[in-house]
Amino acid sequence: MPLSGRKLWLAGIGGAGMSGYGILAKAWGADVSGWDRRETPYLEGVRAAGIPVEISDGPPAPPADAEAFVSTAFAGRVEGASRAELLAELVGLAESIVVAGAHGKTTTTAMIAFVLDRLGRDPSFLIGGEIPQLGGNARAGSGWLVVEGDESDRSVFALPATVAVVTNVELDHHTTFGSDAELEDAFEEWASGIETVVWGKDLEPVDFKLAVPGEHNRLNAACALAALEAVDVPRADAERSLADFTGAHRRFELAAEVNDVRLYDDYGHHPAEIAATLETARALANGGRVLALFQPHLYSRTLHLADELAAALARADIVCVTEIYPAREEPVAGVTGKLVVDRLSQARPGMRVGWAPALPDAAAVVASFARPGDVVLTIGAGDVDSALRLIEERLR
């Protein structure tokens, strides 16, 4: 119980990261409580771990003598240490496998944890998404700690990993890094201090059948297998287990099938991720059309990558774009989802492209275009998945 005697209060405990940190800290002996502004799906697991949570518009005062840690979403608005400091401490308490990179982090981390779990290695894990086969996004076990790192706030570079996995390096956070070179240098410097590093760029996609579709998942699997070999898991055993992995929540997840229209949801928000998602959808459409409802994520990303987003979305047959999901950013004058619409119309003249700022309207537009045999996707890292129910209702 390495955190026995510690009292922690987490601001933003309903997030994908902080919820997991709280669960692990509680299991390792800390007295944990937390606050968030609204209910989230992750809080079910937090409360199941015996952690009290307060929901209110504004943060309450932390309990007496508690150490306060604050999620990125509330940085500068709530006093306390950063969530990065808490994560670094947790990682330092166990032998850890840390997965980083621009794309594929969640899936690759989940693959590693899933194989270790299936093979009886009892892993701990902290993953930035729900993994149905693992029962959530976090767990405290007796084996390796498997962690999804995050370069968006540079927090991954403070993690003292035993084994590091870098799936790929591509600029995705324009308010944090000024160039590809700066990002590459940061990863190289971090990796130089780690005992074993797996670089996705050096690997070939696996050649055996996976339950999750797409070439990108074959590359994720290659990264996972290399990390598992580094911690002495026989490759043959790992491959057998990995073949049964069915994926993470919101990673090309089948949501419904209505009147021969298949609805999928995907968290992709960077052009490379969107392109991979649409290529996977095209392969599964079997001659049917591919329709996408896309919600841009972050003003900075939309501004800097509008052309690239349009080029990726051009792989679909019909696209409807909704307003930007701001997350942690303040609005930027002149930057809206319409920017992507205009660039897409230029990139592929004549393509049917819709612009509907409100999600309910966007759902209605996409549903009106769908016909039997189509594959329809909601794509984005915000709350675009809430449109799935609306699309499904209109298709019935």
Could you characterize what this model shows?
The protein starts with 6 loop residues before the first strand and ends with a helix. It has twelve helices and 17 strands. The model has no long low-confidence stretch (mean pLDDT 94). It has a six-stranded mixed beta sheet, with helices on both faces. It has 396 residues and is an alpha/beta fold. The protein has helices at residues 16-27, 43-48, 83-91, 105-118, 180-192, 215-230, 235-242, 271-285, 299-313, 338-347, 359-369, 387-395; strands at residues 7-11, 31-36, 53-55, 67-70, 81-82, 96-100, 124-131, 136-139, 145-148, 163-166, 196-199, 253-258, 261-266, 290-294, 318-321, 352-355, 375-379. The protein folds into three domains: 7-82, Rossmann fold (3-Layer(aba) Sandwich); 94-242, UDP-N-acetylmuramoyl-L-alanine:D-glutamate ligase (3-Layer(aba) Sandwich); 253-395, Mur ligase, C-terminal domain (Protein-Tyrosine Phosphatase, Chain A, Alpha-Beta Complex). The protein is globular. Helix 8 runs parallel beside helix 9.
